[in-house]
Design goal:
The complex is a heterodimer of chains A (about 550) and B (about 130). Chain A contains 3 helices and 31 strands. Chain A is mainly beta. In chain A, the strands form 7 sheets. Chain A has a 9-stranded antiparallel beta sheet with strand order 9-10-11-12-13-14-15-16-17, covered by helices on one side. Chain B folds into 2 domains: about 55 residues, no CATH class; about 60 residues. Chain B is built from 1 helix and 12 strands. In chain B, strands 9-8-11-12 form a 4-stranded antiparallel beta sheet, with no helix packed on it. Chain B has a 3-stranded antiparallel beta sheet with strand order 2-1-3, with helices on one face. The N and C termini of chain B lie far apart (about 60 Å). Chains A and B meet through strand 24 and strand 25 of A and strand 2 and helix 1 of B. Strand 24 of chain A pairs antiparallel with strand 2 of chain B.
Chain lengths: ~550, ~130
Amino acid sequence: MSAARVCGTGGGGGFNPKPGDPDNNIFITATPAFGGVDIGLVYPETNPHAVAFVNLYRSTNSSPTTAIYHHKMVGSYFFDRNTAATAVTYYYWAEMVTVSGTVMPKVGPASAVPRPMIEELIEQLTGRIDQGLLATSLKDDVALIQTNKLGLDAETLARAATDDSLAASLAETRAISEDTQALVQQEVLARAEADSALVDSVNTLAVTVGQDIQAAIQQEQQLRASADQALANQINTAQAKLGSDIASVQTTLGADIQKIGGDLVSIGALYTAKVTVNGLIGGFGVYNDGEEVEAGFDVDRFWIGRTGTNKRKPFIIQNGEVFIDEAVINRLVFSKLRADNGSLIVEDGKVKAEYILADWANIRNVEVGTADIRNAAITQAKLGTASVTNAKIADAAITRAKIANLSVDTLKIANNAVTVPESYYAAGQLTNTGWITAARVSGYNPGGGITLVTMAFRYALATSRTTNTEIAWASVSVSARLVVGGAVVRDFGVVAADRAITSGGGHDGGPYTASASISGTAMLAHTMPRGSGAQTVELQVSLVGRSRSCSQRYMLLLGVKK
Amino acid sequence: MSQHFAIYDPGTGRILAVMELANEARAKEQGVYIECTAEVSDDTHFVNLATGRLSKKRAYSYKKVSIPMGIRLVGLPLKTEVSVEGASVHSDSAPTDIVLGKVGEYRISLSGHIDYVDQTLEVTISG
C-alpha cells in the first residue's frame, strides 16, 4: 500500500474574503483504499462553520492546470471509488466555498494510487502464488522409488573415458526367498573435473512381496559445485505400495545458486514436505528467493492450536473458509460482513440490519422505509411525507398543512388567515374627569368578517354631599361606550351606579351629609360588523363621583375573516 | 402567531399598555413599542430609556413612624406623590408627615415614579 500524501495549507491572493469567512488553512489527504481512495479534509480552525462545501478537483497529473471538477464534498470524508484495472496515481485539490459565497484558492495536491477491490486482489495474489516455485514444487506427485543400479552402471561407463576423476560404488545386500525380497542398496557417484565436482548418493531400503507389495525408504543426496553453480539437494522419500494403492511422504531440502558471467541469475533455498496418497497431493513448504520468503500449505484443512487442550481450535481453514475462534484485530477491512444469525449484514458497502442497538449514533443522512420509534427526541426534522397516528408536539412550526379533523385547545394563527386576536391591557389607574379612553387599539382592520369586541375594566368611586337642607343626596356612576373611527358605535350607558340620600340626620339648619361609593368590574361585549379599512377602536369610560379611578383595563378584538 | 408588545411613553419610559398583536407592524401603529412577554405589565415593568430594555419596577422602601394623629414616612424617594383622602403632597429630602386630624382608617397611596411599583398602605389613626 502506498503512503497517503498530505498537502500543506493554502492561501494566496486572487480572492476577496468577507467578514466571517474562514481562513484557507484547510488540509486535504488522499489515502489508498481497497477499490478507491479515501479523501480526508481537515477544516480551518477559524470560522469552520462558515464553510458551505468543498469542491474536489482531480487529475492524473500533479499540475493544477490539469485538475477538473470531480465531486462536491460536504463533510470531512469522501471515498473516491475507482476500479480501474491499471494502477494510476490520482492527484486531488480542495476548493473551499464559504456560506457568503467566497471561493477560496485551491489547496493541494494530495495523491494516492487506488488499491484493487478485495476480491480482485485475492485473485491476483492467488495467481502469483500458483505460478511460484513453491506451489509448483508442492504440485508434483511423488515418483515410485526405483533402484538405480542399471542407471549408475551406464553413467559410470559413459563418464569413464572423459572425466578427469570418477569414482563410483554400489553396495547391495539382498535377501531373497521365493517372491520375497529384502534389499539394502547404497549407490555413490563422485566426480571431479578441472572446474567442477559432484557427488550423487542414493540409499535405498526396500522390501517386496511379489510384484504388488512394496515398502521402501530412499534418501537421495546431490551436490554440485562449479564456477557458476553451487547446488545441494536432499530428497527423503518413504513409500508404501499395496496392490494399486500407493502412499508416499517426501521431504526436499534444496539450496541452489546460479551465475552467468559472474552475474547472479538465480538463488533459492527450498524446503518442502509432501504427502501423497493415490494421486492426492498435499504438503507444505517454505521458499526464499532472496527477495521474499514465501510459505504455503497445500492442504484441505489447516489448523493451529494445541491437541487435546483446545475445545475449539483458535484458527482453522477448511473448504476455503477461515474460522477464528477469537480475534484481536487492530484494523479491519472487509467487503462483506454478517452475523451468524443474519441480523447484521454489510454488503457492497451498505449495512443491512434487522436490529441496531446503539447508545448514540451520528448519522448524516438517513433514509428509512418503515420505522417504529418508541421514543425520539429530534432537534430538527424535515419530512417529505409523514403519516402520524398519534403525535404530541410541544412546539411545531408548520409551513403548510391539510388537516381533515382538528381539535385545538388554544389556537393562534398568524397573518390574519382566519382570526385576528388582538388585545389591549393596562393595569394603571385613570382618574380623569369626563370621557376618558380606557383602552385603545389603533389601525384595526376587521377585513371581511365580523369582530367580537370584549371589554372589561375595574372601577372605584366614592362621593359625598353635604347641604344645609333637610335632604342631602349623593351619587356615583360609571358609563361606557365603544368608539370606532371617532364615532360612537355602541353606548353601553351607565354600567354601574350607586346613590345615597340622607334626610333628618342633621339638626335644624344642617349640615346634612349623604355618601355613596361603588367598586367592581365591568364586562362588556359588542359585535362589530364588517369594516371598511383600518380604524381605531376605543373603549371610553366616564366616571362621575369623587375618588374615582378606572384600572385593569382590557379589550380583546377577535376578528373572524371568513 | 401573535406577539406581545409593550407600548410606552418615549419621554418617560412608562408603559401605557401591553398589547397582543398580529405582528410588529401592528405594534408600530399603536405607538412606540418594545416586544415583551405576556407576563409584562405596566404595574410591574417600565422601559429603561438609558438601556432601551424592559426593567422590573422596585418596591418603595421607607420607614413608618407614628406621630400625633398621623404618620411619618422616612426615606421615600424624592418627589414621591403621597395621596390620601383626595389630597396629595410630593416628598422631598425631609420626612413626609401626614396629619389626618381625625381618628379612623386611611389608605395612603404612593406613586409618581415609573421605576417603583405604586403602593397603597392602610393606616389606622387611633388618637
